[in-house]
Amino acid sequence: MHDELVELAAGMDVPEGFRADAQGEVIIVSPQRPERWRIISDIDFCIRLNAPNLRTTSDVKIPGTGEHDKAPDFGLFYKNAELHASKALAFVEVVSQSSQETDYVDKTRIYASAGVPEYLIVDQERAVWTLNTTPTADGYRTTITKPIETPVEIAGVQVELDR
């Protein structure tokens, strides 16, 4: 049932500035926090500054991420690449209280099976980031978790998350 709710939440048309997440057996629609936007904006700035050959997306539904295409908090592609999970270099999700299970469990499985090479989870409450690499059909083969103040490399670009 949870997988069905994840797909249903992904297909919902919610007002701008809100997100829908499956949590247990319910769907929660909540406003997005300013801190989440700061992290996404900082990642976007670092990528644009240091890798002009790359293109970024934020909250854009990406085909190839399930029955109802998911909209990662942040996506990274080569500048002229098709917006499809199979062409992504990395996806990033910034965890909120309502999205913990979806970000850590469901999207890890979905993004890995779609072949997304790098999946970064930024968890402000736990003050850590988790980088998943080497996707397989069942999940990611490599997972590294470090304190949020440790810089992380995404698609070859070093990013600081704790400014």
Automatic annotation (TrEMBL):
Residues 22-145 form the Putative restriction endonuclease domain. GO terms for molecular function: endonuclease activity. CDD domains: DUF820-like (cd06260). Pfam families: Uma2. SUPFAM superfamilies: Restriction endonuclease-like. It comes from the Bacteria. This is Uma2 family endonuclease. It comes from Nocardia jiangxiensis.
